[in-house]
TrEMBL record:
The keyword Hydrolase applies. InterPro entries: C-N_Hydrolase, C-N_Hydrolase_sf, Nit1/2_C-N_Hydrolase. One of its GO terms (molecular function) is omega-amidase activity. It is an enzyme of class 3 (hydrolase). Belongs to the carbon-nitrogen hydrolase superfamily. NIT1/NIT2 family. GO terms for cellular component: mitochondrion. Its EC number is 3.5.1.3. GO terms for biological process: asparagine metabolic process; glutamine metabolic process; oxaloacetate metabolic process. CDD domains: nit. It comes from the Eukaryota. This is omega-amidase. It catalyses: 2-oxoglutaramate + H2O = 2-oxoglutarate + NH4(+); 2-oxosuccinamate + H2O = oxaloacetate + NH4(+).
Length: 273
């Protein structure tokens, strides 16, 4: 099946972001994509100072638009970090998934908040305004089961291992790595998660905006279970297409059967919730 990653140029105008995102979703569908993913924070600038201003409840304006375009195009639509979600007085970094009938299939709240300090390069603390999610998020399609993470979640190998144990064959991470961590770790982490778990990994970023307060690395990427980069964007707004070959996944797992060779008598990773 064909996967499309929409590397969107995000502006400060929510309505413009929504309109352009839906237009690119329609374009991807017309080119045969059955599963389409938007980047983290696609409808608002990324930054703790913006989260409260742009926050919505779910369902709300942005998710309603996503539901409508998913149904119109009869696709599975991963809404990136569609919005800062407001719920019960708290804010969450939330990704929604809609099916071909427009129904909400999954809602992933970012589990690991991006609190880092690289002296002289970048300091960021999502926990100043956001609360963490407390659950794994998976959804079924006719093609395969898909596991979700958001950006910083990709650094935590245990999360990907749980998804693999639960039968996921594709992991999707809407993300917005920056100009420090992006060139160092963006592709490396995707390849690591793919090889460790013998599955496909896709990470979709906003396009780079040098004038933004937070500059995203871009380079939306798809990696196959052999650890090969099979599709990759540059920094500009674009749509990345790739065909996900589950037969190749099965062949790799048969050739190097690490998933059946784990020493569960010596170690293990388990899901607690």
């Amino acid at each position: 099946f064909r996967l499309a990653l929409i590397q969107l140029h995000v502006s400060a105008v929510k309505s413009d972001n929504l309109q352009r995102a839906c237009g690119l979703v329609r374009e991807a569908s017309a080119k045969g994509a059955k599963l389409v993913a938007l980047p983290e924070c696609f409808n608002s600038p990324y930054g703790t100072q913006y989260f409260k201003e742009y926050a919505e409840k779910i369902p709300g304006e942005s998710t309603q638009k996503l539901s409508e375009v998913a149904k119109e195009c009869s696709i599975y639509l991963i809404g990136g970090r569609s919005i800062p979600e407001e719920d019960g007085g708290k804010l969450y970094n939330t990704c929604t998934v809609f099916g071909p009938d427009g129904a909400l299939l999954a809602k992933h709240r970012k589990v690991h908040l991006f609190d880092i300090n690289v002296p002289g390069k970048i300091q960021f603390k999502e926990s100043e305004t956001l609360s963490p999610g407390n659950s794994f998020s998976m959804f079924d399609t006719p093609y395969c089961k898909v596991g979700l993470g958001i950006c910083y979640d990709m650094r935590f190998a245990e999360m990907a291992q749980i998804y693999s144990q639960k039968g996921c064959q594709l992991l999707i991470y809407p993300g917005a790595f920056n100009m420090t961590t992006g060139p160092a770790h963006w592709e490396l982490l995707q390849r690591g998660r793919a090889v460790d778990n013998q599955l496909y990994v896709a990470a979709v970023s906003p396009a780079r905006d040098e004038k933004a307060s937070y500059v995203a690395w871009g380079h939306s990427t798809v990696v196959n279970p052999w650890g090969e980069v099979i599709a990759k964007a540059g920094a500009e707004e674009t749509v990345v297409y790739t065909d996900i070959d589950l037969k190749k996944l099965a062949e790799i797992r048969q050739q190097i059967p690490i998933l059946n060779q784990k020493r569960c008598d010596l170690y293990g990773v388990e899901m607690k919730k």
